[in-house]
Amino acid sequence: MGGGPKETLLVAIEFPESKELVDRMRKKFPYVDIVWYQHDPKKGPVPEHLFRSVTILVTMFSLPSKLSLVPELRYVHFFSAGINHIYEHPLYKDSKIPLTTSNGVHGPQIAEWVVMTALCQNHSYNHWHALQQQKKWGNFRDVKVRDWAGQKVGILGYGSIGRQVGRAFAALGMTIYAYTASPRPTPSSRVDNGYIVPNTGDPDGSIPTAWYSGTSKASLHDFLSQKFDIIVLTLPLTPSTTHLLGTEEFAILASQPHPPLLSNISRGQIVDQAAMVKALHDGGLRGACLDVTDPEPLPEDSELWTAKNVIITPHVSGGSEKYLERTWDILEMNVGRLMEGKKLINQVDRRRGY
Mind listing the GO molecular function terms for this protein (predicted)? Predict the structure, then answer.
């Protein structure tokens, strides 16, 4: 695209400037002025003068404190998949400026984390690793393994991450069940219209054996009653998903012949953490793989650290050397769509919160 109105694009993130990506953008959109300001929000705000002429803002946490600082702003792209951290910000509450997320860039690496940690639990890796450190040769009778062929996985939130998780588990012989807030009764309603990393995910939504949906307790409890071996949480955090799993839900899971393993890569607040810890100690959960906690960082005195059969990592599952390149792909596509008046990819629906 060689022409168009002059645009000023400000990148305000913690990453250092990528000359390669900036040059690529400039060649594609020569009328876009690009300013890359490497910024750590913990060290203070972005200088106000940088916001004045900005028409496109690219960031994660570095936002203007008030709308009057960005009189020309007409589009914001976030380097994160979730935007729960801006629900109370004027950009979200008091404007109609289009917001887009980096939903879709995390699928491959997060699905790898989910499978890796679940395998560690299923094959008692910590036991074998401890023996290795002690230079001891163990015995297969030390542990019990139920291989995954024919087992059932329930995925709460079948977006880009959930679809890649489903693809990975299905390849290992597992049966996939999807749960979404909105009904997906037809093949066309199950299509993924967001950003998709090539050769990943479930673009046409054909992997799940069954789709469940709803926003009520009854619909959630019906889904949780399907006797899953693994439950994966990939939901966005919204007021309606906060503490979605609590005492009632863990009681349903505890009543099943084989209590499931819980994997959470979304947000810690989606689970009532105290209820989860109790379920772990009481046997209502077989274990938990957690890349997110409530709060973060997890305090040293939290009982979650020593809960039974838990793997905890510090919100790192989304990390990848490809992260910046993939989210820049979304940005480039949307800059073109913005100029052409087309619908943006991954645009946030403020009514739904994502």
Answer: NAD binding; oxidoreductase activity
Residue 69: both structure tokens together: 């600082």
Reduce the DSSP state of residue 251 to 3 states and report it: helix
* Fold match flag (7-105+322-340 vs 107-312): yes
DSSP H helical ranges for 96-159 = 107-122, 125-133
Distance CA 130, CA 136 (A): 9
107-312, what's its fold?
Answer: Rossmann fold (3.40.50)
**pLDDT tens, position by position, for the chain (354 residues)?**
445 568 999 999 999 999 999 999 999 999 999 999 999 999 999 999 999 999 999 999 999 999 999 999 999 999 998 899 999 999 999 999 999 999 999 999 999 999 999 999 999 999 999 999 999 999 999 999 999 999 999 999 999 999 999 999 999 999 999 999 999 999 999 999 999 999 999 999 999 999 999 999 999 999 999 999 999 999 999 999 999 999 999 999 999 999 999 999 999 999 999 999 999 999 999 999 999 999 999 999 999 999 999 999 999 999 999 999 999 999 999 999 999 999 999 999 999 888
- Which residues make Cβ contacts (< 8 Å) with residue 255, sequence separation at least 6? none
Q: Calculate helix-pair angle for 107-122, 160-171, nearest 10 degrees.
A: 50
> CATH assignment of 7-105+322-340, given 3.40.50.1980, 3.30.70.890, 3.40.190.10, 3.40.50.720?
3.40.50.720
- pTM for the model stands at 0.91
Rounded to a whole number of angstroms, the CA Rg of the chain reads 22
User: Which residue is it, tokens 């695209």?
Assistant: 1
Q: Where are the domains of the chain?
A: 7-105+322-340, 107-312
Angle CA(285)–CA(288)–CA(289) in degrees, nearest 5? 160
CA distance 327 to 221: 35
